[in-house]
Every structure is written in structure tokens, then in C-alpha cells.
Amino acid sequence: MSGPLTGLRVVELGGIGPAPHAGMVLAGLGADVVRVQRPGPGRLGSWGPADHLLRGMRLLTLDLKSGTGREELLALAARADVLLEGFRPGVAERLGLGPDDCRSVNPRLVYARVTGYGQEGPLAGTAGHDLNYAALSGALHAIGADPAPPPPPLNLVADYGGGSMLLVTGVLAALWERQRSGQGQVLDVAMLDGVSLLLQQFWSLRALGLWSDRRSANLLDGGAPFYATYRCADGGYLAVGALEPEFFAALIDGLSRAGVAPADPMPAQYDPSGWPVLREWLTAAFGARSRDHWAEHFAGTDACVTPVLSWPEVAGHPQIAARGTLVEIDGVIQAAPAPRFSRTAPVTPAAPQVVEGGVAEILAGWPR
């Protein structure tokens, strides 16, 4: 056995963003994931076998607009456990591959749909990307330094945090329920919903009067000087996350041991009126020496001070190396499968493989 999802059969209908990322996560845990790609050159987000987001998957080319392609896809759906679909609402139905079509040949199928805005509502059929969904959820409003514009948070917030992770959670929940009912079901995963779910703590803080609508004015948005980043003498940066009083005390102690004189007077940690003084003091202290000096000085303490690493530096960090958090596949450094399992650890994933034998090759390994 290799991975806790060994034996799970998944079909992904060649999308971008959250659907292939979810497929990668499932494949990393042992699922047999077949990605059905359209004929012709790849679109943004997929470079075929060179795309390591598709690692561990098998790549199959089908023309879903043709009758033959449709029938072959339905043959796969008839034997699959899960189908991942990331088209705009109505597209799969027009292809004759919607939930009713696929579940008519396999009532146990979990048909998992992921879109930006969901299957209904005034924006359901509208194009968008991570930045748009983060904007409408309120998340983007809270990110970044005021008065600068909110920065694009890569595409981690909606595509992967609110999209892929919610998609994987929904799939596993539906599979668990299927054990009792014997029936599959249709999942409506909206990235907008997912980002809203990620924001639950902040909705709660706002209701309690503990979160301002102003950016860079709150505990977790860079407003608090003990939860922020600082430029060092060599141009590198430190991340300081000394939120709790005991961690803040360790931060102050560490600076004292480095010969940094305390602010006079030292503001109370949670008094926002003193934050400008505290920020000025920390800015001057960290700016006087290099990033690596401070990283070494605070190593092993509970001051929650870490270097902001560049991409080339990450793999060499002792914690990353000790955990095997990154792996090398075909000369490419990338993330290892996660999480860890005590008995059913997955093997290191392979690069995506093109299915040369077509649908027949897959069906031969997927007996009824």
C-alpha cells in the first residue's frame, strides 16, 4: 500500500487553479488521478508533463466536444469514485457531462464542482480569479500596508486556501458519507465561500469590536509592531510574530542580550497608543545588523523571530531539510506530499505521465 488513498479513482476535467491542485493533493496521498485534457496546446496553468502541479497524475487527451470523447469520459466516470470539474456553471451540462449525465452511469460517483462564485447568484457565470474572490470576501481589504493599495496575495487565498483545500475536504466528507448511504452526491465548491470560511476568526473579532476596518491597524495585519516584518542592515527581512506576552518577553530579552537598550518608556504590549514608539524602536534595532545575525541570535528561543527566506534559500533551512518538506523530482525542487501518516506514508510522487494507450489503458486497471 502506498498512501491512505490508494485505490481511490479520480478523474479531473483539465482545469486550472484549484481543481488540478486538489488532484495533486489527492494523488500525493495515493489516489489514482487521471487528468482529462483537451487537444491542442496547453492553457495558462498547465504545461503538460512539464507541469509539476500535475505530478503523480496520468494525463489523457480527449475531445469532450465530440461524441466519442463524451462516451469515453462517461466510461471513466462509470468506474471512478470522484470527478473534479472546474468549468463555469452550465458548461459541463452543455457537453453532456454534467452531474446527472455522469451519475446516471455511476450513482456512487462524487461529482465535485469548483467555481469562483458558485453555481447560482448574479455572478455565477462571470469570469474571475483569486484576486477577485479575495476582494469580494473582504480578505483583500484587510491585507497590506495602508495607504498603499492592497497587494495581490499570490493566488494562495482563493485558488488554493478557499478553493483546493475546501474541495479536498468536501470530497473526503462525501466519500465518508457514501460508506453509510452507498450513494455519491454533487459538491458545489465556491472559492468565494471558501475564503469567507477562512475569514471566520476575523468576522468574530470584528463583532467583538476587536478588529478595525482600517488596514495595518490590527493585531494580525501588520498593525501590531510585534507581529510584523523588519528590514535589516543587509537588506534582508525578519518576520517577528511575538503575539503572546511570554513570546514578547522573549523578544525583549533577546534584544537586551544583544545590547539593544530598551525603549524609554517601554510601551505596554497591547496598548495601541504605544505601538508607534515600539515599532520605531524595533525598526532601529533590527536595522542595525544583518538578517542572518538576528536569525542566529534568536534561534532556539521562543521570541518567534525567523528570517524571510528567498526561494533559493528555503531548501537549505535546517527545519525544512529535517522534515523533508521539500523534495526533488526530475531536478525540480518542490513540496513533499502532506500531511504525514504513521502507517500509510505515500511514496515520493513522480512527474505526470501521458497515457499512451488511451481510455482502454485506464479501464484495464479500473475493473468494475
Number of strands: 12
Distance between the termini: 20 Å
> What order do the SSEs take from the amino end to the carboxyl end, as H and E?
EHEEHEHHEHHEHHEEHHHEHHEEEH
Taken from the alpha-carbon principal axes, the silhouette is elongated
| Structural class category | alpha/beta
| Overall pLDDT level | 95
Unreliable runs: none
Classify the helix fraction into a percent range.
Answer: 25-40%
Helices, by number, come to 14
* CA gyration radius, whole angstroms: 24 Å
Please indicate the percent range of residues in DSSP E strands (runs of 2 or more).
Answer: 5-15%
Largest β-sheet summary: 7 strands, parallel
Order of strands, main sheet, comes to 6-5-4-1-2-3-12
Helix and strand topology:
Blueprint lengths: L8 E4 L5 H11 L3 E6 L20 E4 L5 H13 L2 E4 L5 H4 L4 H7 L4 E6 L14 H8 L18 H26 L4 E5 H8 L1 H8 L19 E5 L5 E5 L3 H13 L17 H13 L3 H8 L6 E3 L3 H4 L3 H6 L2 E4 L2 E4 L17 E2 L3 H8 L3
Parallel strand pairs: 1-2, 1-4, 2-3, 3-12, 4-5, 5-6
Antiparallel strand pairs: 7-8, 8-9, 10-11
Helix pairs in contact: 1-6, 2-4, 5-6, 5-7, 6-7
Characterise this structure.
37% of the residues lie in helices and 14% in strands. A hairpin with a 5-residue loop joins β7 and β8. The protein has helices at residues 18-28, 67-79, 91-94, 99-105, 130-137, 156-181, 191-198, 200-207, 245-257, 275-287, 291-298, 311-314, 318-323, 358-365, and strands at 9-12, 32-37, 58-61, 82-85, 110-115, 186-190, 227-231, 237-241, 305-307, 326-329, 332-335, 353-354. It is built from 14 helices and twelve strands. By secondary structure, it is an alpha/beta fold. The mean pLDDT is 95. A seven-stranded parallel sheet has the order 6-5-4-1-2-3-12, sandwiched between helices. Strands 7-8-9 form a three-stranded antiparallel sheet, with helices on one face.
